[in-house]
Amino acid sequence: MQAEAAPAHVGAAGAAVLEGSNDGVRQALRQLMSGSALKGLEPDARGKLEIVLAEVLNNIVEHAYRDESGPISLHLWRAGPLLQVVVEDRGHPMPGGTPPAGELPALDGPEGPPEGGFGWFLIRSLTEGLTYDHSEGINRLCFALRVNG
Amino acid sequence: MQLSAEDRGNYLLIRVNGDRIDAAGAIQFKDRMRALTEGGLSRVVLDMTGVAFIDSSGLGAVVAAMKALGPERKLELAALSPTVEKVFRLTRMDTIFRIHATLPGGLRNAG
Predict the structure, then answer these.
(1) What is the CB neighbour count within 10 angstroms for residue A136?
(2) Is A32 within 8 Å of A53 (Cβ atoms)?
C-alpha cells in the first residue's frame, strides 16, 4: 500500500498511515517532520518525537511485521504540555504481552561497545505513560512526550 | 545515502552524503564503511555534516564500523546535528567516540 500522511495542525488531530517497511517508516517520518502537523512544536520536541517514532515504527516493521508486512497507523494530538501518540498495527503481538523495560546496554561488555539494544531505552527515556495492548488482532501502543510551549 | 573518502594526510575523512543513517540504510552504511576504510590510515573521521537524523540501527552501524577498524585504529565523528548528538548523548555513546564540532585540521587544511 502507498505510504501516505495526513498532517494537520498539532492543535487538532494529526494522523498518518504508512506501509510497514523500513522505507515506509523513512517516508512517513520525512513527511511528518516537514509537514504542518507539527506546526508550533519546538525543534527539541520535534527531535525527541522523531527519535521515539523511528524506534517504535522500526520495532513494528522488524518484529510485528517480521513475516508479512501490513499497515501502521499513527495518531498524534496535543494535550496541554504533552503530545499524545497512538500507534497501531495488525502484526504479531509483543512477546509476553509487555513492552521491554529498555535498560541501557553496558558500554564495556565482553564484546566491546554495544551495536544494538538501544531502541527501548530511547523510547522509555523520552516518553511517559507508555501502555501496550493487543486485542482483536490489533497491537496498540500509546505514549506521551512532554513538549514545552 | 552515499559515502565518499578523502585522504587528509594525517587522517582519512569519510563524508556522508545523505541526511539520515537509519534502519533502511544501516547495512549499506556498514558495507560501504568497511570498503572505504580497508587497510589504511589509523585515524578515520566520519563527517556527519548534513546528517539530520540517526536511529538506533544507524547508531549500531557506526559502532560496527568502529569495531571493524580494529583496536589499532580510531573512528572519530565530526559535525553532529542536534538530534544526532541527542541520540549519542542519551545512549552514552558520546563517551565511546571522540567527537569534533568541526572537521579537524589535516596536513592540508580544510577550507
Answers:
(1) 6
(2) yes
Amino acid at position B23, single letter: A
Residue A13, phi-psi category: left (phi > 0), alpha (psi -120 to 50), beta (remainder): beta
Question: Which of B53, B60, B83 lies at the smallest CB-CB distance from A116?
Answer: B60
What pTM was computed for the model?
0.91
Question: Which residue is listed with cell 589509523?
Answer: B42
Rg (CA), chain B: 13
Q: Is B9 helix (H, G, I), strand (E, B) or coil?
A: coil
Contacts of A58 in chain B (CB under 8 A): 22-23, 55-57
Interface residue A109 vs chain B (CB under 8 A): no
Q: Does A42 touch chain B (CB under 8 A)?
A: no
Express each pLDDT in A86-128 by its tens digit: 999 999 999 999 999 999 999 888 888 999 999 999 999 999 9
Measure A48 CA to nearest chain B CA, in Å.
8
Q: Which residues of B touch A (CB under 8 A)?
A: 20, 22-24, 53, 55-57, 59-61, 63-64, 66-67, 82-83, 86-87, 90-93, 95-96
How do A71-79 and A82-89 pair as beta strands? Answer: antiparallel
CB contact under 8 A, B92 and A104: yes
Record the cell numbers describing residue A112, joined without a space. 566491546
pLDDT tens column, B2-27: 999 999 999 999 999 999 999 999 99
Residue in B67, B5, B77, B16 with CA at minimum distance from that of residue B40: B5
pLDDT in tens, A71-85: 999 999 989 999 999
For B101, the grid coordinates are 564540532
CA dihedral sign, ordered A25, A129, A6, A44? negative
